[in-house]
Design goal:
single chain, binds pyridoxal-5'-phosphate, 8-stranded mixed beta sheet, 386 residues
């Protein structure tokens, strides 16, 4: 089965472009809300770095989610998109002064702080504005997520977060500062995680840390467990949504919250990956000595994940029902990494056929570049074709 695409309408648009299935996005958000709404102290902050297309953001805002930002530009983007500052969390190892000031001026919910020098700068900048900033400390739980090395963030060797051994001393230090208020702990162990055992390990680690806080009579108002839930890139049609129940149940069963604590999640990929496809047109079919190439008009400037992470994306010929043949699908960019897939079966491809590169809603459009002076791809949602 192929995805459900308005192909005749696609023919009228310049390719390549991103297509977001808004019904699937809404269904995904409902599935998340169904799980989360059973707990009145749980909150989901969509990780906007996965996709900041305004139409996508609008649907996510309508579903009531908050946002997780990692730059001042993202804070500006989500404020423009109508998200409430009181639902914004702001992470990142290298926050510039102007970015911190944007967060302070907007009155965001929390700064997720990754080092002592950063804590002191936030305190100074908040003092200059006569404000008190809510902060949470991002701890590095040294929990290994079995995922690509470039997207693992929770190991001691990564640049992210503060060592667990420093937790109590940094909290005690922060309590002496007048313009920050210590509200919580923050974690984020990586991305594209499919083994619930990794989240289970994170819960155990947090439980131990909270026991240690109890011994020091430190009470925090929230725990933020980050994001990282993966999607099924192999089977976007059959498994069009992650197993949100298994994911949230892991936290419900394992994590021991203290009285009055709220629990925060920062899902990115799991929210938007499956609803997006990169639609590209076949320019040429080239018969090499040993194989056939389908040369398409999208390149890694439009979708960099295969070149950057050797990521797999399912590809379908959505124009043709001809019998299958085997192709390497490659882009036009002058780099040998500009390959979307090697030796895959597609319905026989002809010049002009549209291919859908599936599961491209996360870390796709937002990572596009203009290398080779290429145009940035546009993004459309289902309603744009009605
Ligand atoms: C990237 C990121 C996320 C979202 O990760 P996903 O794997 O897309 O769910 C959440 N929190 C922080 C701090 C991040 O940097």
């Amino acid at each position: 089965m192929k995805g459900n695409f308005p192909i005749e309408k696609f023919e009228l648009k310049e390719t390549p472009f991103y297509y977001y299935d808004s019904a699937l996005l809404r269904q995904t958000l409902r599935a998340i809300n169904d799980e989360v709404s059973r707990h009145d102290n749980w909150h989901v902050h969509y990780a906007v770095k996965a996709n900041a297309n305004p139409k996508v953001l609008n649907i996510i805002r309508e579903a009531g989610l908050g946002v997780d930002c990692v730059s001042g530009g993202e804070i500006e983007t989500v404020l423009n998109a109508g998200f409430s500052a009181s639902k914004i969390v702001f992470a990142g190892v290298g926050k510039s002064d102007w970015e911190i000031n944007i967060g302070l001026d907007a009155g965001i919910f929390c700064f997720n702080v990754e080092s002592i020098p950063e804590l002191e700068v936030i305190n100074e900048l908040a003092a200059a504005r006569g404000k008190v900033a809510n902060v949470a400390f991002r701890l590095n739980p040294n929990v290994g997520a079995h995922t690509h090395a470039n997207i693992t963030t929770g190991l001691a060797e990564n640049k992210f977060g503060i060592a667990m051994a420093d937790m109590v001393s940094i909290i005690e230090h922060a309590r002496e500062l007048k313009n920050v208020s210590v509200a919580g702990l923050h974690f984020h162990i990586g991305s594209q995680i499919l083994d619930m055992g990794d989240f289970d390990a994170l819960c155990n680690r947090i439980n131990d840390l909270q026991d240690e806080l109890d011994r020091h009579h430190i009470r925090l108002t929230h725990i933020n467990v980050g994001g990282g839930l993966g999607v099924d890139y192999q089977h976007p049609n059959r498994v069009s949504m992650p197993d949100f129940k298994a994911y949230f149940d892991t936290y419900a069963r394992k994590l021991k919250l203290r009285q009055g604590q709220t629990l925060h999640f920062e899902l990115g990929r799991a929210v938007v990956a499956q609803c997006g496809s990169l639609i590209t047109r076949t320019l040429y079919v080239k018969e090499g000595a040993f194989k056939k190439f389908a040369i398409v008009d999208a390149g890694f400037t439009d979708l960099i994940r295969p070149a950057l992470y050797q990521a797999y994306h399912k590809i379908e010929n959505i124009t043709s029902d001809m019998p299958n043949s085997t192709y390497d699908v490659v882009g036009p960019i002058c780099e040998s990494t500009d390959v979307f897939a090697k030796a895959i079966d597609l319905n026989e491809v002809k010049r002009g056929d549209l291919l859908a590169i599936r599961s491209a809603g996360a870390y796709g459009e937002i990572m596009a570049s203009q290398y080779n002076c290429r145009r940035l791809p546009k993004g459309y949602i289902t309603e744009d074709f009605k």
